[in-house]
Design brief:
With 154 residues, the chain is of the alpha+beta class. Helix content is 31%, strand content 26%. It has three helices and seven strands, in the order H-E-E-E-E-H-E-H-E-E. The chain has a five-stranded mixed β-sheet with strand order 1-2-7-5-6, covered by helices on one side. Strand 5, helix 3 and strand 6 form a beta-alpha-beta unit.
């Protein structure tokens, strides 16, 4: 087991299977030393854990937990093309999309779920640049979607 997967186990987390694409794209693509993931939804065992808008049907706290699920799914996608999560030199960028009620402005707090998970699992290698964007709707009525870009060790 890799050091990253050992750390996940210490946190009582399991790296899930890669979420199959919902359309015509790959879950992750490698280009040189970088891996770019597609947007990852909070899928658990092939199903969305929760649906709806944050600030309406979904609480910010629930959405933050869902962003953690998205980050775990993103790590699974990275592993599918990198072979080993220990090859991650650093997480470069995280982009989080939050399906928001019209008056909800707490997108950064929601996306912290993904950012905090990456830092917990990868330490300093998990600290990254980030965008947190509010949107009207996401695929399958998901409350949150997260994509990451990582740099691999050469």
């Amino acid at each position: 087991m890799s050091a990253v997967e050992t750390k996940l186990a210490e946190l009582s987390l399991t790296l899930p299977e890669v979420v199959p694409p919902l359309a015509a794209y790959q879950p992750a693509v490698r280009s040189g030393v970088y891996v770019y993931t597609a947007g990852q939804l909070p899928m658990v065992d092939g199903k969305l854990a929760v649906t709806g808008k944050v600030g309406h049907e979904v609480t910010p706290e629930e959405a933050k937990d869902l962003a953690r699920v998205c980050a775990l799914n993103a790590l699974a996608a990275v592993k599918s093309v990198a072979g080993d999560l220990d090859r991650i030199a650093r997480v470069v960028k995280v982009v989080g999309f939050v399906a928001s009620a019209s008056d909800f402005t707490g997108q950064p707090g929601v996306v912290n779920g993904a950012s905090e998970l990456l830092a917990e699992v990868l330490g300093d290698k998990g600290v990254h640049a980030r965008s947190a964007v509010g949107v009207a709707v996401l695929p399958l009525d998901a409350p949150v979607e997260v994509e990451i870009q990582v740099e691999l060790e050469p």
